[in-house]
Design goal:
Blueprint: H1 2-17, H2 37-44, H3 47-53, H4 58-71, H5 76-100, H6 104-111, H7 114-147, H8 151-158, H9 162-168, H10 173-198, H11 202-207, H12 214-217, H13 219-232, H14 235-244, H15 254-290, H16 300-306, H17 319-352, H18 358-379, H19 384-401, H20 403-413, H21 416-419, H22 426-451
Length: 452
């Protein structure tokens, strides 16, 4: 009898999911019918891992390392604040998907005209492309460091990572989450160990978590701060989270939704805390090794070389540390490949209702991403420092694109009509609007300063 009831409920949920975001994974992860807090948390854990990946991609690496190299520990406060902002926004995103059964792209398209939806789709696609460019550059440089490949060859090889995605798509969504979590743990351990070796100054480091007014007053500092914000609060992650959370077979009742919101928020906050720590470790590493050094340091190649240079790191310097760094960089890029493709599919289906095979989506996205990188490599004759500069600007673009995702998310999750009893409390609503307004003002100022 219970089995029949569960079967009927499952069938009704599947019917509800028809035309849903990422239909191939929607409602596929079985949840325990009984169990305590930890068992339920374990079952809901996974979407937060995939979201956190976007906060630890090569774009984060270069902005955090450059921030530490140029301004010591001052930008740690930016990482802290933007991580807290990310936790709030991601919880709102997951809640939207759980309560409405729509992802952010679908909800936005439903609330706007076709032309507006198309424009928002283009902006979001460009943000995803900017993320993909960061992955291409990070992967190419990692291959160059590990195997001595010319950058142009590494860039072309990254175009083949579509095969990795095709293989992972065969093993099941839950296993993909486990693989990504393992790679994240590897990255965390590598950088924690390397920061310990770098012996940072604890006083200035702790002071760096207190916001400094100079960040808003110095254009160069503001540029990197916005790059960190763009790399930390990822616009495409808001679309991603609202979709993949629906892979869980939670009950589509008020009580079931309430439980799903609770555990998905905990999952997300845990994973984003880990991502924040990784980003702080990267900035601390850049500051401890490169701040005040009169050289073009703070880049991937220089950091790689420094880890095996006993004049910088000391007696513990070792080629093994350099290799670990390059492996972590490669793992970071490949991790982001998975989530970038899923996000692209979500926004394409949601905004313009167009469905294409995932492998074709991956090929098109990657080809569009490698073109500007190839141009940079050719123009600057393979100079990795010049190519890495493109990474910083891709992260700034992500920051510029962010309000176009935050504003609809805030409107929808604050709407009693859409969310009912799950609508944002007033304090969440006001904080979210404050975030959207401040980011918009800062971005307008940044663009004005750039042209000036």
């Amino acid at each position: 009898m219970t089995h029949e009831k569960n079967t009927k409920e499952h069938q009704s949920v599947v019917q509800h999911a028809n035309g849903a975001s990422l239909e191939e994974i929607n409602n596929t992860v079985v949840m325990p019918s009984k169990g305590g807090f930890w068992r339920k948390l374990a079952a809901y854990s996974g979407p937060g891992v995939l979201v956190a990946v976007g906060y630890m991609d090569p774009g984060n690496w270069i902005t955090s390392i450059a921030g530490g190299a140029q301004y010591a520990y001052a930008l740690l406060s930016v990482i802290l604040i933007s991580s807290i902002v990310a936790m709030l926004l991601q919880s709102m995103s997951a809640k939207l998907g759980i309560v409405t059964g729509m992802d952010l792209a679908q909800a936005t398209r439903k609330a706007t005209s076709k032309p507006v939806g198309f424009i928002l789709w283009i902006i979001t696609e460009l943000a995803i492309m900017a993320t993909d460019i960061a992955e291409v550059i990070g992967g190419a440089i990692a291959l160059h460091l590990l195997f001595g490949m010319p950058l142009i060859v590494g860039v072309l090889i990254t175009a083949l990572d579509v095969m990795l995605l095709l293989l992972l798509s065969k093993v099941g969504f839950r296993k993909i989450e486990a693989i990504v979590a393992t790679l994240i743990a590897t990255i965390f351990i590598v950088f924690l160990y390397e920061v310990i070796l770098a012996s940072p100054e604890w006083g200035p480091m702790l002071k760096g978590f207190i916001p400094d007014p100079q960040i808003a007053l110095q254009p160069g500092m503001l540029l990197l701060a916005l790059g960190i914000v763009g790399a930390t609060v990822m616009p495409h992650n808001l679309y991603l989270h609202s979709s993949i959370i629906q892979a869980r077979q939670y009950k589509r009742t008020a009580a079931g939704k309430r439980e799903a919101i609770k555990f998905s928020t905990i999952d997300s906050n845990i994973q984003l805390t880990i991502a924040m720590v990784v980003n702080c470790l990267l900035l601390i590493l850049g500051a401890a090794m490169f701040y005040g050094v009169e050289s073009d340091l703070g880049r991937f190649v220089e950091l790689y070389n420094a880890l095996s240079d006993n004049k910088i790191v000391g007696a513990v310097a070792s080629p093994i540390l350099s290799t670990l760094f390059a492996v972590a960089l490669l793992a970071s890029g490949q991790n982001s490949t998975i989530t970038g493709t899923l996000s692209g599919q979500i926004v394409m289906e949601g905004f313009i209702k167009m469905k294409i095979p995932m492998w074709l989506r991956r090929v098109v996205t990657r080809l569009l991403a490698i073109i500007p990188v190839i141009i940079m490599v050719v123009v600057y004759n393979g100079q990795d420092a010049k190519v890495e500069e493109l990474l910083i600007y891709t992260q700034v673009f992500l920051s510029v694109a962010l309000p176009f995702a935050i504003i609809p998310l805030t409107i929808f999750t604050s709407s009693k009509k859409m969310m009912g009893e799950f609508a944002n409390p007033k304090w969440v609503k006001y904080v979210a609007w404050f975030i959207a307004i401040v980011l918009t003002i800062l971005n307008v100022y940044l663009i004005y300063s750039t042209f000036q």
